[in-house]
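Field log, afternoon session.

UNIT: design team B
ACTIVITY: writing a sequence onto a fixed backbone
BACKBONE:
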């Protein structure tokens, strides 16, 4: 697919859009199936030193070396305290939440685009209108290719607003970290198509000199997605593998060199409550562990014991106890109600209910033992054999949900094209 880049929004247009409103919207981010997906996932700025869970961080944020595995001086509330161990990522649905939890990173997804299309006056809706006005996309032969081109352009322009706004850069100041761009989930089972799509998007970013270290490409953790991540990472393109629900997926993703691996804690717990027959989940439950938390711990220890570069992201964290159980993991996506509770609660050393002690660290990972059957070079056959019904069903549901959202975006573009004044 060939693209030409229209001029990005002018500084005046950006400023005018910003002044018109406070960006109230409901727009989706990481989640794809009920409950409704959140909007954009953002990383908190913090005024205290943070202890990274990995020695080599690819994040744009600064970090400090750990001086203590437990609560230190200067943490006034629980949010400060837990932020000293892991990067805390608010799961937000409205841009007004920026005021309470200033972001440093963002995700651009098909569900976010659906929300943006419902906004009459924002900097983001201007990006949609510009993409729909693109003469190259409009001139393509088929409706399918035309809508796919529009989809890419809107993805690109929305990411652009987070990464390289011109003259003053209001949003780039607000979101200085990496931006993850969702790759069309309808390509989840086609390695070559995923790679082509990422290259198409990357060409657009290259034309306006968006640094590669500001970008992640979010890909479902099918075998084909994992293979695509491996090849893209070998080119220096950062990938974000999502819908990881089994140790085999996490280990294969780490071996592929994925920059970020995302595990959904709460969804595994939900599956375990209503189903049976998954050996990995039953092993965790028999040992008294929550299956989602157990998968994060095992995956983290595997990554750090064997020296993989991947960062681990714990998503669908439902409560404070989940968060405290995972202190030290690279990223934790938490609901705003949990973050607000943490912010409102003073940090109390030696708290009887919540322990401010790092649970995961590269040092403790060296002592974790893995059975030989898990220390294999993962391939398509071994991955398929190791994935139980929970990971198979949840991965499939996630891909289907993302694909449906992408289809809805294209259908909406078809209804509103051409935009006014075109």
């Amino acid at each position: 697919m060939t693209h030409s880049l229209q001029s990005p929004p002018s500084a005046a247009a950006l400023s005018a859009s910003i002044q018109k409103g406070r960006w109230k919207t409901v727009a989706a981010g990481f989640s794809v199936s009920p409950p409704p997906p959140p909007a954009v996932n953002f990383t908190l700025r913090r005024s205290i030193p943070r202890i990274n869970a990995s020695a080599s961080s690819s994040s744009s944020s600064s970090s400090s070396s750990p001086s203590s595995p437990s609560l230190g001086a200067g943490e006034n509330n629980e949010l400060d305290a837990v932020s000293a161990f892991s990067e805390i990522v608010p799961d937000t649905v409205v841009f007004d939440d920026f005021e309470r939890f200033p972001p440093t990173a963002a995700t651009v997804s098909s569900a976010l685009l659906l929300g943006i299309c419902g906004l009459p006056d924002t900097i983001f809706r201007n990006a949609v209108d510009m993409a729909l006005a693109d003469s190259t996309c409009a001139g393509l032969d088929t409706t399918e290719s035309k809508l796919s081109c529009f989809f890419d352009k809107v993805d690109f322009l929305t990411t652009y607003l987070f990464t390289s706004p011109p003259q003053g850069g209001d949003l780039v100041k607000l979101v200085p970290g990496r931006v993850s761009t969702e790759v069309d989930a309808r390509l989840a089972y086609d390695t070559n198509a995923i790679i082509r799509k990422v290259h198409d998007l990357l060409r657009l970013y290259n034309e306006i000199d968006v640094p590669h270290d500001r970008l992640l490409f979010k890909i479902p953790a099918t075998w084909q997605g994992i293979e695509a991540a491996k090849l893209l990472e070998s080119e220096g393109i950062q990938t974000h593998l999502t819908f990881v629900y089994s140790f085999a997926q996490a280990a294969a993703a780490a071996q592929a060199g994925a920059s970020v691996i995302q595990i959904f804690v709460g969804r595994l717990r939900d599956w375990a409550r209503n189903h049976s027959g998954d050996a990995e989940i039953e092993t965790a439950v028999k040992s008294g562990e929550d299956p989602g938390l157990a998968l994060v711990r095992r995956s983290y220890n595997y990554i750090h014991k064997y020296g993989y570069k991947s960062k681990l992201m714990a998503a669908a964290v439902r409560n404070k106890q989940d968060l405290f159980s995972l202190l030290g993991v690279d990223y934790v996506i938490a609901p705003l109600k949990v973050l607000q509770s943490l912010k409102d609660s003073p940090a109390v050393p030696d708290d009887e209910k919540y322990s401010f002690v790092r649970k995961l660290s590269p040092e403790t990972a060296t002592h974790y033992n893995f059975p030989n059957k898990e220390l294999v070079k993962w391939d398509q056959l071994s991955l398929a054999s190791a994935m139980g019904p929970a990971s198979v069903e949840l991965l499939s549901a996630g891909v289907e949900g993302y694909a449906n959202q992408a289809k809805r975006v294209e259908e909406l573009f078809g209804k509103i094209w051409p935009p006014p004044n075109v």
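LOG NOTE: The radius of gyration is 21 Å.
NEXT ACTIVITY: expression trials, pending approval
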